[in-house]
Amino acid sequence: MSASRSANAVITNAFGNNAAFTCRTLNLDIPVIDIGTFPADPVAANSLQGIKRQQTNPKRWNEPVWGEFVLALRVSDVEIIEQKFVSGTFATDAGGTAYGMPHGVVIAKDAAQISTLLQAAQQYKVPVTVRGGGLTTEGESVAFGGVLLDMTGMSRVLKIDAENLSVRTQAGIFWHSLAEALRRQNLDYLSAPLNMTSSVGGTLGVGGIDVNSARLGCSADQAIALQVVTPTGEIVECSDSENSELFQRVILGYGQFGVITEATLKVRPYTPLAMHYFYYTSLSEAIADLQMLDANDVSDYSGILTMMDKVVNLLVAFDSDQRETAFKTDWLHRLRGHGEFGIALKMALYYAVHPWRWREALFLRERKNTLFPEFRRPEHMRNGKVVDRTVVFSRAVWKHWGSRQMVIPDLATSPEKFIDTVQKANLVCKKYFPHYTLYCVGIKLRADHAPHYEMSCIPPDAVTHAYGCEFEPMMGDLNADAMYSRDTLQSFKNEIYDIGVAVGASYYRFGGMMKGYIRRVFGDAVVDKHLAMKRKADPNMILNRDVIF
Amino acid sequence: MRNVDVIIVGASLAAAAAAKRLTDAGLETIILERKELPRHKICSGILSPRGHRFLLENFGPLPREVLHDPTWCRGVTFHFPSMVSMSLDFFGGSTPHLHRKYSDYWAIQRSGAEVHDQTSFVGLSEENDHIIVNARQHGEDIQYRARHVIGADGPSSPVIRAIYPDYPEQIPWFFVGQKFHGIIDCPLDHEYFHFFFNPNLGHYTWSHARDGQQIVGVGFKSGDNFDAKHKNVVRYLEEKHGVKLDPHTSHEGCAENFGPSLINRYVFGKGNVLITGQAAGFLNIIAEGMSCALHSGAISGEAIVEARLRNRPVQEVYRKMIASEVRRTTDQWNPLKVAFGMPHEADFRAALMKLSWAERRLVVQDIWKFIVLYKEFKWGRQIVQSALGRLSNGSYTQQRWI
Fold first, then answer.
1. Which of A273, B182, B183, B386 satisfies CB 3.0 to 4.6 Å to B264 for a cystine?
2. Interhelix angle for B314-321 vs B290-310, to 10°?
3. Number of domains, chain B
4. Pick the residue with more confidence: A535 or B337?
5. What is the ipTM of this complex?
6. Under CATH, what is the fold of the domain A274-518?
């Protein structure tokens, strides 16, 4: 399409007069690109080999139809906030590398309102970006123009069924609010992401990994049924038995096939947990032990949290005394990790012969002093057991891991490839950042949910378990010395993601700024299949436009 | 008086990148451009692969109109006086041969910022927490009031002169000119950018194909005679490389601030005025300035966004964030990095290893003779100091930045 336009804008000059100013557009053939497709590159066939020619930092949607669209919404009684200071609060997400300003914000009220919104959006071809807790890291919940739908308006727990162990909740609720409601009836969720201010709907759309995922699967697999508003505005109830195809697409679907408005989740009786920590100096040993525990279903909770690759902490926890006793008699002696005293001694010896690394030693000591008490704060302990892992983990992890800006590239692989992949990525972390942490955890897969897993964070070659590792640089607080350009952070993430392409992994956060990797890692056939489904479900590609395609 | 968040001076690639970051974050941004857009720009147009990727990821796929013919460049060929030549292919394949007149205009349009062309920056003054920018538009004075100003106005930057009037006297200036010739016979491979390590020709001598013509360019210390220098290069190309050219049909030239990247002496501005792109001193080896202009421009925009979010002084944020781009650019000139690292987007060492031992010796000798040409600028000690500092601290010192 040849864009030859000329528009007159009026500006005020120094004398307060209106001077006509002409914004000319010359005959530049700026191609209009169908979402999800790639035009031929006019440069050369061999340029930027392997990198898809995709704009990952999207151009802002800005069409004159907006005014008409807003009027239509107002007539239908959908409130839309257009003030810049409101839009401005949604300008970026937790990742802080993508910025975008919505034209207007709609606070979710109920499914009917969202249905009206999406129908109008289809009619006027206005993009709608859905946001829960805004904890995406690649701009997936940033609206590059159009409407931002803030789901936190729908945050009520609708029904707790203590008998059948399930809960029906609105999907904009944060996990910690849900946990609070459940605890009043002595219940607990199965698994939730460590950052508890993520929303239930957002989590079901991407995964949700907890330290018990090796046993209970990812959060998305706990969903029994969902109420979804499709991109064309129908309100549909779906589950494994009802509208199962939609259910398969929406679970782990990165928001492409509908807005989750309500969810029925499995829950379980609440239990305090007995925690054990083992410390390693070798990443591969710690991972091998973690995988041994998971493969034999030894523990109820297991995961790895590290301080660089120097002190690797394997966390093992139990819901019941029987399982804890069984672990102590049958498995404890097989673990190669040390206790707190053992690791302190080992590190003291290490730094005695590596005195030039004194800065690192000081850092580790300081980390130990601030971090260890956090995990056993007296108000969260009863009889040596953690009574509120929700609070303990989300508080400690988000206070002491990473920074205000979440930069957490990750890799998800089959168990066999995991150690090698983590070691490669660990070297990348070292190259970029002096201080970083890793978080590794297993994810049990459901054989009956295989269709859910296609083109998701679950790697295609994983059968019974998958393993995920997050790589999180510690960039300090607001006034930290270290401030990184987005290019540095993006280069770091690219290097981690390149390992994923090389080993055939998947990623938890592959959308938004990293969507160039989707075709590289899943292949054109799978992506095109999903693109065709998306086009059918969302003819004008209005819903979460810049996330995947 | 127009009251905006940011005024960007210059409508170049650095400006487009900065504007993109600012407008994305919802900051009202106006770009001032002295000329009428689209404007001509003197440039080889050979963008590095990293710059190409930046354009794609931030502005979308390139339209054909923003490219010259040939649309691509495969790599660089170095020619030495000892008649050894070596070709280096860019990592990741061919890179674009940008038509700067249109590529810059395209990027500026895609950035989403408002552009006031035919508007010359005249000066600025601080007023509380704002900056008053004085400009001339269609012969009339015009004022803007902005929270921040970004100077992305090239080597002889009026914004720098407004805040550091004596800066231009502190650095050596070069003149770089190119003439366009019809081709009778040109054995130089048109897929490559050709660079001549020859101290007798000039400080920077190159040739490449564009739109059916051959460019012959030469850079030298300001004050020398362009025509004489150029004639000398044409004669050399004909005698030594068999290049037969018609007399030139057109010519162009401009002043260049070559040097700050070598010695880590960048200018990043003062207070709420940021300097970026080649104005700040960014120039890759083989004098490619576009990819670091794009990245440093983006960082200047990011710095303003971050500074406002975190309520920190913008200079502090900018200087912390720009360190990565300084490392990337100055590493390219760092002898330790060149010898033991891989700072460039092509593999010099691998190309060298393809030569025979005798040829390698000649190449090293010729490069040394070429470096000696730069002796008068007394950069040697500063380069060694920077290189050692980089080795021990992992970064270049900020003390030398202006």
1. B386
2. 140
3. 1
4. A535
5. 0.91
6. Vanillyl-alcohol Oxidase; Chain A, domain 3 (3.40.462)
